[in-house]
């Protein structure tokens, strides 16, 4: 039944009202979520650490060996260290992950600064010695990655679980 009241109605009036209402509703829902279900500080730190890795100039070091996947199990070895090898161009990084920390070597040996990225913990900077070796007394827990700075190059490994 046509009442004649909708003459000249094209629907844009409601579209504008709906857009304003949707924006207000979204803002109200964001505020409610911040109060009722706040973002955990650890998760926020993980997100910030992941964003820091978003470096367009960084080369990604490919994981070419992981002893959890590629090694043949040794009978009687209760807790063998995890051995990892990453490659980026002509650079190789060998890493041994144990309950006592990390041991590694950059090949060919060169001056580098390595950062161990992981979880809510702060970035751990490591120095590479003249033979390309580095060590950390803190074992990674949870996901971790390495960021190498060699001169002007930045190389980042993929994230792995310890």
Shape: elongated
Strand content: 35-45%
Number of strands: 10
Helical element count? 3
Contiguous uncertain segments of 5+ residues: none
Q: What's the mean pLDDT score?
A: 81
The Rg value, from CA coordinates, equals 26 Å
Largest sheet: number of strands, sense, barrel closure: 10 strands, mixed
Terminal-residue CA separation = 70 Å
* Fraction of residues in helix: 25-40%
Strand and helix order? HHEHEEEEEEEEE
Derived structural class: alpha+beta
Please provide a brief summary of the model.
The protein has 162 residues and is an alpha+beta fold.
What does this structure look like?
It is built from three helices and ten strands; from the N terminus they run H-H-E-H-E-E-E-E-E-E-E-E-E. It has 162 residues and is an alpha+beta fold.
